[in-house]
Amino acid sequence: xxxxxxxxxxNFGDSRxxxxxxxxxxxxxxRIKIVLWSIxxxxxxxxxxxxxxxxxVQEVKREGIDIMIALDLSNSMLAEDxxxxxxxxxxxxxxxxxxxxxxxxxGIIVFGGxxxxxxxxxxxxxxxxxxxxxxxxxxIPTQGTAIGAAIDLAMESFDxxxxxxxxxxxxxxxxNHEDDAVESAKTANELGIIVHTIGVGSPQGAPIPIYRxxxxxxxxxxxxxxxxxxxxxxxxLQEIAMNGDGVYVHATNSQGGLEQIxxxxxxxxxxxxxxxxxxxxxxxxxxxxxxxxxxLLLEQIISSKKSKLFFSKKLFGV
Length: 318
Hints:
Rossmann fold; 318 residues; 40% helix; alpha/beta
């Protein structure tokens, strides 16, 4: 706009002559008016976008169960006796399970030769699905199947001072080589924690494929060069569930097993607990729109002409 006015004046005639013809014209005030109008316009746009700020955190009361899912990430979970493989079938079942939860708190533990907390216990189901999508066998540095370590870590992850009922769901092919998982299940049961197990795979066994990108490049072999066959150890998982006062379910392509586990969990008494969440968002549009109105009023009040008093005393040179 400033350039347009300057160009228009130049087209009208010599700038010095124009200044003499309109001595009260103030270039500085015109620039100020344009700046005020521009800021007011930007402020109005921001106000129309209705910015919001979380004003406080409130504790919301809910009723539910605390659930820790322990998912096996040993290489044997890549066997394809379930479609597309044991691990992906388990992840799909967990994703569906999360969608069925109402107000229960959920956490995820992953384990191989050691156990790790993938997701601390939470009511944020969107975060749970996000963390679930990142799970694969490569995130475990130590291979093996330490079911006992996973149960122990799940127990540590619970708030034992809370009166909320608690449950651990172990999803594995049951090939435990690292520790005494049955003893861990007994300990959990003594603390009032129910341990359920889901077996993935087939008792007949299946080889573990090796992929280079999307191309299969043979199967895993032992030190003698024989193809490794990984079998579902139902007896181990059944014993863990029995000592954990839970149930054992065999997962199939049509049933992921968590549907039956959810039925068992829903039979448990749901206890009220508090969780802190952002519950109140305040609109901030009024500040920006108010500023825009004030700036526009100032723009209208400010004259584009020099003050006659100042001009008569020649306080300004232009």
